[in-house]
């Protein structure tokens, strides 16, 4: 199967107080259509920066991102974004928030209404379509955000720590909901998380980034059958993959801490 999303030598350097700081460097990655890929790594390794580059929210300073062979030059409707913050309009209802994503669509009014109704059902919010965000729990608000990102049917869904603010029980339920929606709607997902259990449970493949500048340290395929029951986290195969990833992240975190300590010591002399 050919790649839908391709990152070719992608790098990003920021200017910090007049000095160049590399956040991401030489990332090569190919993601197939309908594939679910998680990105993990130590804090500050460039996970979100990489996602923003794919989303067209930031411009790479090196390399290129392509979708179906076409270079990414900015945001586009072929990509949907879900952030940790819900980013909902507090003055719009659930249906209104989802419908907002279709405002510039050429669909007829009836087609838009049908699409909104479909995704209200898809994320389990039937009965809450006229509720406002302030009347919803955190998990329900994130369901609205997912529905809004999918309602115009992007080819790629980009998710940046979308469940990070949720309690453990709600988080688990949202992970299962996401897998069901992903399976039903055949969308490619690039998912950033700091939670290794979450990364392995959701993904076909986990990409581990090295500490800054972010480079791909390892790609690990997750050969666990789908659908995955949540108690698969206790499966020996799951535990073995998790242990491998945690070892990689720990190694990179220690490297980062040693570099920071060395920099601090040099500054004292």
From TrEMBL:
SUPFAM superfamilies: P-loop containing nucleoside triphosphate hydrolases. It comes from the Bacteria. The keyword Translocase does not apply. InterPro entries: AAA+_ATPase (IPR003593), ABC_transporter-like_ATP-bd (IPR003439), ABC_transporter-like_CS (IPR017871), ABC_transporter_ATP-bind (IPR050166), P-loop_NTPase (IPR027417). GO terms for molecular function: ATP binding; ATP hydrolysis activity. CDD domains: ABC_NrtD_SsuB_transporters (cd03293). PROSITE patterns: ABC_TRANSPORTER_1, ABC_TRANSPORTER_2. This is NitT/TauT family transport system ATP-binding protein. Residues 5-236 form the ABC transporter domain. It holds the Pfam family ABC_tran. The keyword ATP-binding applies.
């Amino acid at each position: 199967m050919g790649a839908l999303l391709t990152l070719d030598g992608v790098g990003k350097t920021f200017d910090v107080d007049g000095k160049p700081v590399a956040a991401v460097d030489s990332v090569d990655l190919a993601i197939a259509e309908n594939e679910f890929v998680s990105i993990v790594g130590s804090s500050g390794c460039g996970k979100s920066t990489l996602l923003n580059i794919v989303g067209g929210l930031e411009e790479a300073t090196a390399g290129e991102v392509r979708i179906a062979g076409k270079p990414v030059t900015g945001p586009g409707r072929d990509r949907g974004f879900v952030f940790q913050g819900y980013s909902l309009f507090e003055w719009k209802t659930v249906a209104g928030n989802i419908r907002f994503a279709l405002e510039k669509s050429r669909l007829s009014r009836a087609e838009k209404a049908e699409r909104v109704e479909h995704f209200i059902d898809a994320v389990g919010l039937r009965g809450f379509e006229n509720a406002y965000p302030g009347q919803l729990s955190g998990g329900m608000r994130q369901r609205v955000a997912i529905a809004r990102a999918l309602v115009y049917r992007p080819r790629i869904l980009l998710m940046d720590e979308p469940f990070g603010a949720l309690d453990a029980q709600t988080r688990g339920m949202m992970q299962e909901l996401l897998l069901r929606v992903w399976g039903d709607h055949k969308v490619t997902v690039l998912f950033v998380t700091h939670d290794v259990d979450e990364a392995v449970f959701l993904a076909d493949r986990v990409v581990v980034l090295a500490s800054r500048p972010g480079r791909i340290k390892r790609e690990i395929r997750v050969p666990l059958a789908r659908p995955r029951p949540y108690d698969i986290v206790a499966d020996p195969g799951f535990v073995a993959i998790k242990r491998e990833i945690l070892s990689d992240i720990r190694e990179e975190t220690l490297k980062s801490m040693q570099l920071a300590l060395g920099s601090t010591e040099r500054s004292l002399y």
